[in-house]
Amino acid sequence: MKKRIVLRALLGALGTVMLSAPSFAATYDLTVDYVEIDTGTMKTRGIGYNGSSPGPTLRFKEGEEVVINVTNNLEEATSIHWHGLILPYQMDGVPGISFPGIEPGETFTYRIPVSQSGTYWFHSHSGFQEPDGAYGSIIIEPQKREPFKFDREYVVVLKDKHPHSGERILRNLKMMPDYYNRNQRSLGDFIMDVRKNGLGATLSERADWGAMRMMPTDIEDVQGFVGLINGMSPDQNWTGLFHPEERVRLRFINASAMTYFDVRIPGLEMTVVQADGNNVQPVKVDEFRIAVAETYDVIVQPKDDKAYAIMAESMGRSGYGFGTLAPHEGMRAEMPELRKEAPLLTMADMGMNHRDMGHGDMGSGETGKGDMAGMDHGAAPSGNSAMGNAAMDHGSAGSMPGMDHSGMAGMDHSNMAGMDHSAMAMGNRADPFYAAGSGLTPKAANGGKFLSYADLKAQKPLYADRPATREIELRLTGNMERYSWSINGVKYEDAEPIRLKYGERVRFKFVNETMMSHPMHLHGMWSILDTGQGKWNPVKHTININPGTTVYSETEVDEPGQWAFHCHLSYHMATGMFRKVVVEGGPAVATLKNGN
Amino acid sequence: MKRHDLMMKGGFVAMVMAVVPGTGQAAEGRTYYGFQAEQFEYRLGDENEKRLVWDADAFWGTDELKLRWQGEGERDLDADINEGLENRLVLQTPISDFFDAKAGVRLDTPTGTDRWYGTVGIMGLAPQWIEVDADLFVSETGDGSARLDLEYEGLITNRVILTPSIELNAAFSEDREIEVGTGISSAEIGLRLSYDLIDRSVAPYIGVSYERKFGDTADFAKEDGEDFEATYIVTGLRLMF
Amino acid sequence: MPSFKKSLIRHIATSTVLLSTLAGMQAPAFAGAGHSGGHGGASTDIGMPGQLSDVRRTIRIVMEDNFFDQEKIIVRAGETVRFMIENKGEFVHEFNIGTAAMHADHQKEMFMMMEHGALEADKINMAMMEMDMGNGMTMKHDDPNSVLLEPGQSAEVIWTFPKDTELEFACNVPGHYESGMMGKIRLQ
């Protein structure tokens, strides 16, 4: 990749002064190519950038304008979406929404005024090019010093590389939704369950699932992948070097098509300092789960002169990525023991508890008092008696700004254990972002601290906290048997766009009525995840919603134009869990053309 | 989620393999296609009869509307005749979360008498993972008949699968020309043990199949000097592409 | 555990040592050394509170989010230094002189304080306590090797360093030390 720093003539004369606003333009050239992806055990034809997959790491500076010339060397149209970047909508790279796409042989010039910093990524938004390898990472250096210190840094891009092309995977899923599920319960499991629980209980449990025609093993639609770290399989052992005592910043990006990873570095605590490119108040964890399309930046400080494993086991335990942090070249960390036992969904994930709680309570204009009553009601059946107390503590202390209008409501359906401070002190509170009793609730391999959304607090709020002007309910819906996914029961091609008004603050209520987790990604504008912490609510671009839960996020509608809003699981997006968002009003958007 | 909810049976057909349209993800309704041979097997009977049997299906279409071909046949390798040869072409649309309705035509062209039928039916997944294909037929001679196919896939392991199946045929009136009497006319019960050799694409299996004709239909067979029941050892491949 | 919480908050200002007792945690380094200046009997010699009259040098330390403006402090063995510390950040920060092990133990205490609401990201919940919070004298008398400052506050610490101990200055607010809000103190 060539990078030409072109100082604008006038500003160039000013010399080295740090300037705000677009002070200079950096130019990048990217080609989109067919490439060979070799994991050591399989070679497939895929799509990459500048001749390789993953593509390069683009390094931008906050305040500059970047110009990126993208040349399509494929025999099909392509596009690049700059995931998480705030930019004019014509530069957002979604064919049919932002622009027509980039035809074979064409060069499209993106011009992006960079107004943020942090870790992001880019990928094709055309067909299944992204699952097929069209992704790369972005680092944006901030203008100001960051609220943490590190001696060196690495991008750690996770990918679920599959031997089948994306097109073929979707066709197989359509023929047979469990085509790739090789973790189904078999006769052996049945016998074990009978031994453990008795014949009657086992039959009755099987009958419950059978009646729904759902499977508790339905956690990963697409198994059979190899986890890649920076394009390298566990055998190929991506290695990042360090000197003992150094602080190493790891910029984790989950560029997978379908797979969530549980990430840990045995022997090291990780201090999470950034989520989705935005700084968060540092939180020490032993392990974290990264949903598809999310990013987390962590700082580790390896003190010993030895190799440490970066272990990324998939949520359903059907695959893993592995790499090494090493003090010297040529080292390979000892492989941690794999957690072979795959999680099983429970009736809680099927939304059974969810219905008990009743969404009706959650209309507009809730008051803190009403919410608490609602919470007690909701939490009691699921056995979280601690909840009520915790909520009251907050109320009397008055220490949670904004909680009355939003905070507690956000926690409602997903059970309130996270608000229980006494439980938190024990370090093993239930994660409020999973349904009470969910089979997906993660546990750290070492029994320690597993990151929850509830731990994420904005380091410096991007927006003043204010009440949302309105709420939009988005039920995440689907039919696993037909492998079709939708929002409010309507697929993209049949749906009207979501219309937002420039200047409003809209509150999205995500109700997950499916048995799968969905990472919902709104393009072009930030999603302020409601963790019940008012102004400290973290600001993200991708919000994961687990089965049987309701999650709220708020968006300051501050970018005109039209945007995509979708589940970032490739085959959920492709089959209809997708919406166009139209922002009406606001400053007229200058007509931007292909810079050529 | 259970296997083959959307496509139950399969066969061989030359289909126009449509390319999934569009470059923008989810930009428009996608078109899908698929082929599956649930049975493609050699049968050896208890009296040393040899048969080649297939039961296959292919589809092309969207979530809302599919064109489906279903074909089955039985070739008597001893006599070199087609005992049965049946092709169906139906349009299919969802009517509930788990079931589709379908309607179309069926043409039987075995060695002997041909028949055209009009057909309506449903197919889908019943509770407890039972795959159902139920059809009504009215032939060109005005005779009505019905067929019910049930199948269950039991996972011995995640690759070794034991599949019991049953097919029941009934006729509402007699059609002597094709040797079908009124009432339950015939049944076939099978049990196949397969191994997923290459993904789900190729799965060799062995099994047993028991066929029996009933009532007048059985009598017609006896009059013709044919067996009204037979048991076979079967071996074959389940295919999916 | 509301009653626990109340008592915790009541006691936290008068003696953070009590916190560890109440929380049922064992933190000998913290209890002994972390506050050794005020109570004497340090197991590790980290120095002691100094007298203004002995001060030859003043070091200004600015706290930002989440770092100190200095990454290393060099003092002479046995020197008495006045630290003038100002919190220019938007979060609560601590300036604490101790060994790495003491800081590690103290971080557990601070984590508890935050989990129990005694400490929030941007404020110290001691308003209900009759303490002068206006001039940055927080906990000074009880905790001479450290100060905990809200945004905008400043304070001073006068410290007489020992002859040779590996010391660090650090902010032990949860996550801050790990983020690099610490520095070495080199004794010459």
From TrEMBL, chain A:
* Swiss-Prot/TrEMBL keywords: Copper, Metal-binding, Oxidoreductase, Signal
Sorted alphabetically, which SUPFAM superfamilies does this protein's record hold?
Answer: Cupredoxins (SSF49503)
Q: Supply the InterPro entries for this chain.
A: Cu-oxidase-like_N (IPR011707), Cu-oxidase_2nd (IPR001117), Cu-oxidase_C (IPR011706), Cu-oxidase_fam (IPR045087), Cu-R_CopA (IPR006376), Cu_oxidase_CS (IPR033138), Cu_oxidase_Cu_BS (IPR002355), Cupredoxin (IPR008972)
Q: Which N-terminal stretch is annotated as signal sequence?
A: 1-25
Q: Which Gene3D superfamilies match?
A: Cupredoxins - blue copper proteins
Give a yes or no for keyword Metal-binding in this entry.
yes
Q: Which Pfam families match?
A: Cu-oxidase (PF00394), Cu-oxidase_2 (PF07731), Cu-oxidase_3 (PF07732)
**Limits of the Plastocyanin-like domain:** 40-144, 227-316, 466-584
Q: Give a yes or no for keyword Flavoprotein in this entry.
A: no
Annotated stretches, region: Disordered: 360-388
Q: Which NCBIfam families match?
A: copper_res_A
Q: What is this protein called?
A: Copper oxidase
Q: Which organism is it from?
A: Thalassospira povalilytica
UniProtKB/TrEMBL annotation, chain B:
Question: Which InterPro entries does the record match to this protein?
Answer: Cu-R_B_prcur
Which named protein is this? Copper resistance protein B
| Natural source organism | Thalassospira povalilytica
Automatic annotation (TrEMBL), chain C:
Question: Where in the sequence is the signal peptide annotated?
Answer: 1-31
Under Pfam families, the record lists: Copper-bind
Blue (type 1) copper domain location is: 68-187
The UniProt keywords, alphabetically, are: Copper, Metal-binding, Signal
Supply the InterPro entries for this chain. BlueCu_1, Cu-binding_ET, Cupredoxin
Kindly provide the name given to this protein in its UniProt entry.
Answer: Copper-binding protein
Species: Thalassospira povalilytica
Q: What is the lineage of its organism?
A: Bacteria, Pseudomonadati, Pseudomonadota, Alphaproteobacteria, Rhodospirillales
